[in-house]
Amino acid sequence: MPSTPRFLRRTIGAAALAALTLTAPSAFAADLVVSAAASLTNAFKTLAEQFEKSHPDTRVVLNFGASDVLMQQIVKGAPADVFASADQDAMNRAESEKVVQPASRKDFAANQIVLIVPGDSKLGITSLKDLTRADVKRIAYGNPSSVPVGRYTRGALEAEHLWDAVAAKGVPAQNVRQSLDYVARGEVDAGFVFATDATVMPDKVKVAVRVPNRTPVTYPIAIVAQTKQAASANAFVNYVLSADGQAVLARYGFLKP
């Protein structure tokens, strides 16, 4: 049976990770499993491709999802070598659960929260307070209990005394890309995402408000404690932090931490 091309098998869901590690093709010395926040999807696909060019014996397998969900997967023993979170809380929990190597933890990117609306919206939303209007009925945001963008959103709205009013119209999403999809499909009147996510569908969504946030939106990365690919994991983290890696992240709209 012919082998599957790299670009078709680089990204995989968590349920298939264990099976993949058992059936990895012998052409690669190792699979390096990188569990990364959903907002990093596009940037990390490019980073993985670039990393593989200089490490031809390593195949990078990407597992994307909400940061808290990824952290829980690692806690429960899912294969992973590197964990990249969209906020410090998820990484703090990973560290307290002793599933990452504390000395390897580094901040590698920053972002901003934005409020987006469908590209054809006629509601004229220009401020967070506009979300309390009667004609704004459904608002998407990441579930604060498990999604970093949701925690940032709740914090920003609580600072403006708007959280209860917005939550009453809330459509919680499982990750930031789901919130983006809800807005892009016009299923909600507005939604909160990271600024980098808003650039993914510029023809379907538009930024209505850049949300002030008292907590810096920073992304930490760390090597998983259970890794059996320590050298490759360290090399990948170093690449993300390198000038070349940072240039890739900047291309996708991420800021320096």
From TrEMBL:
Gene3D superfamilies cross-referenced by the UniProt entry: Periplasmic binding protein-like II
SUPFAM superfamilies: Periplasmic binding protein-like II
A Pfam cross-reference name: SBP_bac_11
Name the record gives this protein: Molybdate ABC transporter substrate-binding protein
Subunit-structure text: The complex is composed of two ATP-binding proteins (ModC), two transmembrane proteins (ModB) and a solute-binding protein (ModA).
UniProt family annotation: Belongs to the bacterial solute-binding protein ModA family.
Signal peptide: 1-29
Gene giving rise to this polypeptide: modA
Keyword Metal-binding attached: yes
Superkingdom field: Bacteria
Protein's GO biological process: molybdate ion transport
